Amino acid sequence: METMTMTTTMMDAGTRVLKEMLLPELTKISDRLNQVAATQERIAVRLDQMDRRFDLMDKRFDLVDKRFEQIDQRFEQIGTDQIGMFLAHSLRCEQHETPGAVAPGNLITS
User: Fold this and answer.
1) Considering its fold, how many domains does the chain have in total?
2) Which of 22, 58, 72, 101 could form a disulfide with 93 if both were Cys (CB 3.0 to 4.6 A apart)?
3) What whole-number distance in Å separates Cα of residue 56 and Cα of residue 62?
4) Domain limits for position 83
5) CA dihedral sign of residues 72, 75, 81, 84
6) pTM of the entire structure?
7) Sign of the Cα pseudo-torsion (100, 105, 107, 110, in order)
8) What is the CA 53 to chain-centroid distance, rounded?
């Protein structure tokens, strides 16, 4: 019987140690893990927002790139038109035998 009482007393002491010493520490660790999990969730949400913003920026850059291509093509067309006008003017001058009519300042522009 004495062994049983001693065992019970030791178990009670062990339970008390767990409750008084380990439980508060485990509670602190649990609280900290919950804080870390919440921080990770906020980071994940922020990364998702940033990813969506980068996708939008990428689409905008594609639109800007297409617009620059259109502008470049238009400038090429204008340049071709200018060369064509210059050649037509030169041809007219040659047909009318007007020497020197095609001087650098005589380029016809529209």
Assistant:
1) 1
2) 101
3) 10
4) 2-106
5) negative
6) 0.48
7) negative
8) 6
Both tokens assigned to 98: 């007007």
Which amino acid type is present at position 11? M
d(CA 110, CA 26): 84
Write out pLDDT tens, residues 5-42.
Answer: 666 777 777 788 777 888 888 899 999 999 999 999 99
Residue 76 has which token pair? 């090429």
Rounded CA-CA distance 26/41 in Å is: 22
**Cα distances (angstroms) measured from residue 48 to each of 4, 52, 57, 60:** 61, 6, 14, 19
Place of tokens 């927002």: 49
How far is it, in rounded angstroms, from Cα 26 to Cα 59?
Answer: 49
d(CA 86, CA 99): 15
Indicate the DSSP class of residue 21.
Answer: I
Q: CB under 8 Å to 81, separation ≥6 — which residues?
A: 110
DSSP state of 98: -
Sign of CA dihedral 87, 92, 97, 98: negative
